[in-house]
Design brief:
This protein is of the alpha/beta class. It folds into two domains: 343 residues, Methylmalonyl-CoA mutase (TIM Barrel); 105 residues, no CATH class. Helices cover 48% and strands 9% of the residues. The chain has 19 helices and ten strands.
């Protein structure tokens, strides 16, 4: 049985860190740089401090990253003035793929020509000292958003810059964002990141880890979202992380959102207690709709308002905010700020929203919970010598299978579509261990809204624009 355990903690982290930092000596980091700087910051800069405090509404977390220090500083202060609770730092795609030379080259050319040649902030090109200045006088946590299978050097630099929340994980960032990066290597690299976060925070102010819940954001059934989140949670807990957020994106159905939130909370508490990780504090993050957005601004604002209301009703600890320009390209500073203010306005209308339910939510939660339990038990029963290896083997076997994930090791045999109420249903589980009774129920619910026209591939294509 592959039992998650603290005995799986990375051995020889300091040696691995020293080798990594020597290999990239131009960034001028030592193994004590991050720990020393983080110890100098006030508690208000730590995400774990915020998550452990009582809050009457979800925290607001926008996205945003620009290439130059000047642009990023302007965005940071726009978010600060709009009263975002968490400040983002979104990384460019070259840095995400470990091509630091290309990121630095495009940054230099872009500055010389007055054009943005990067789709985010090249943190390693700027370095930790310059990045610290972005957040000078900022009194709230900074969150690193990226999508990197090998984030070791990026996270080393981020922590040295005073960033206290790290998003990502070996499953949730590799399967949706990468095609060729070996998954077993990515899982090992994220062990390094988790252990680094566990040992770098000051006493009483642990660094916070957050998983990426939307995955491909395309017809991912709630049971698969929950299973991936719980695996990421346990992998981080093994390495000593004590502050963690599980997450998911708006499914298109309020009932499924409410049910999934319930299952994530209950199962997170259960698996942590089962394997002796009761010291881990778990929060819930909700991403506003991650699919195609309406191009019509009024409809985009309505979708943002709906997702904001849902975040309050399901009692999320944090909501990741979208903008009315999502259908058009990279949002402007002004659009980002306006979205933060609009979401705050909606959330202030729905304080203390948790607890909404009905028979449909109860039925969905029971079905999702049963499916998640069955999948996790398959992983826990695997005879591999470690939980990490069992998770890796689960992907190879198709036990974990993310619809529309580009990764070559993803099975891509799980078939889903929308049924009544826009709820995501499983039509063919592939190798995912869904019981015969649960599969019959999924298929019955898929057809409960009446026959859908056209072949399955046409229905899947139509679903890409289901809320647009």
């Amino acid at each position: 049985m592959a039992t998650p355990t603290r005995e799986a903690q990375v051995d020889g982290l300091d040696r691995e860190r020293s080798a990594l930092l020597r290999l990239n000596g131009e960034i001028r980091l030592g193994t004590d740089t991050a720990r020393d700087y983080l110890a100098s910051l006030p508690a208000s800069r730590f995400a774990s401090h915020a998550h452990r405090r009582a809050h009457r509404r979800p925290y607001l977390q926008p996205r945003g990253g620009f290439p130059t220090l000047e642009q990023q500083r302007k965005l940071t202060w726009a978010f600060h003035e709009a009263e975002a609770d968490f400040i983002p730092l979104t990384i460019d795609s070259h840095t995400r793929h470990n091509d630091y030379a290309a990121a630095a080259r495009h940054l230099k050319t872009g500055i010389a020509t007055g054009r943005d040649l990067l789709n985010g902030f090249p943190l390693i090109a700027h370095g930790h000292l310059a990045t610290r200045e972005l957040f000078r006088d900022v009194d709230r946590p900074v969150s690193l958003r990226h999508g990197t299978p090998d984030a070791r050097l990026l996270v080393e630099t981020a922590l040295a810059a005073g960033i206290s929340e790290i998003e990502g994980g070996g499953l949730c960032y590799t399967l949706p964002y990468s095609r060729d990066f070996p998954l077993d290597q990515a899982l090992l690299h994220w062990q390094y990141v988790d252990r680094l976060c566990a040992v770098s925070g000051p006493a009483g102010l642990p660094l916070h880890r957050e998983s990426f819940g939307p995955l491909t954001a395309t017809l991912v059934p709630p049971m698969m979202v929950a299973a991936v989140q719980l695996c990421e949670l346990l992998l981080a807990a093994e390495q000593g992380v004590t502050s963690f957020s599980v997450a998911f994106g708006h499914t298109g159905s309020l009932e499924q959102d409410l049910a999934l939130a319930r299952v994530l909370r209950e199962r997170a508490d259960a698996v942590l207690a089962r394997f002796g990780f009761e010291d881990v504090h778990v929060s819930l993050v909700y991403h506003q709709w991650m699919g195609a957005f309406p191009a019509e601004p009024s409809l985009a604002w309505q979708l943002i308002a709906v997702c904001s209301t849902a975040a309050s009703l399901l009692g999320a600890d944090k909501v990741v905010v979208k903008t009315p320009e999502e259908a058009l390209g990279v949002p402007t500073v002004e659009a980002n700020s306006a979205a933060v203010r609009a979401v705050r306005y909606v959330l202030d209308m729905f304080p203390e929203g948790r607890g909404v339910t009905n028979s449909t939510v109860d039925e969905e939660a029971a079905l999702i919970g049963d499916e998640v339990d069955r999948l996790l038990e398959r992983i826990f029963d695997d005879p591999a010598p470690s939980f990490l290896q069992s998770v890796f083997r689960a992907v190879l076997a198709g036990t974990i299978d993310i619809p529309f994930a580009p990764h070559q090791q993803n099975a891509s045999r799980l078939v889903t579509e929308r049924g009544a109420g826009r709820r995501i249903r499983i039509l063919d589980p592939g190798s995912v261990p869904v019981s015969a009774a649960d599969l019959r129920r999924e298929r019955a619910l898929a057809g409960a809204g009446g026959a859908q026209e056209g072949p399955l591939w046409e229905r899947l294509l139509r679903d890409l624009h289901v809320l647009a």
